[in-house]
Amino acid sequence: MQPITSKTENRSIAIHRLNMDEAGNAGLKFGVSRRHQPAEANTQQSKAKKIAEQKYKEVLKTAEKSKKSDDNDKNEPTEDKEVQRKAEKERKKIYDEILKKCQKKRSLANAKLRKAKAEFKKAIAEAARKVEKLVAKAHRIDRYVNYMNYLTG
User: Fold this and answer.
1) Single pTM value for the model
2) Helices marked H in 4-38 — which ranges?
3) What is the structure's pLDDT at 16?
4) Alpha-carbon span 67 to 9, nearest angstrom
5) How far apart are CA 128 and CA 35, in angstroms?
6) 77-104: b or e for each residue (b if 16 or more CB lie within 10 Å)?
7) Bigger pLDDT: 59 or 31?
8) What pLDDT, on the 0 to 100 scale, is given for residue 25?
9) Lowest-confidence range among 29-33, 51-55, 136-140?
10) What ranges does the record list as Basic and acidic residues composition bias (predicted)?
11) Which of 5, 32, 52, 141 could form a disulfide with 91 if both were Cys (CB 3.0 to 4.6 A apart)?
């Protein structure tokens, strides 16, 4: 049986799962399944997301400060929307830049993996050739021994 958890723990678990899904889906955009994503890429994506969210929060804080100072302005709602749009664009731009870096790292990791697989296949083929040669040599020796036994026997 699982231990009884509080509502806040359940909520935090659900939020954690949601964040993990979002990180996985970000990787799926680039055609990489979650199972084959390098762990490094996931951490880079989460870092990118955190940095983008921090920038977004900073811009919103400055917008709130300016909003408090200009409470009597009639154009306040349009300015607020404009500031939010700018903040959203900035956050998206930062997030996209970091995702591009992650994509480059992932492509390099995939290239190294392909190269290692090719070298491994070559090594297996070479070992198979050597084994075949040894087996053929063993058969020749066996036939020679049988022939010698026949002559001496």
Assistant:
1) 0.36
2) 7-28
3) 63
4) 36
5) 31
6) eeeeeebeeebeeebeebbeebbeebbe
7) 59
8) 55
9) 29-33
10) 50-90
11) 52
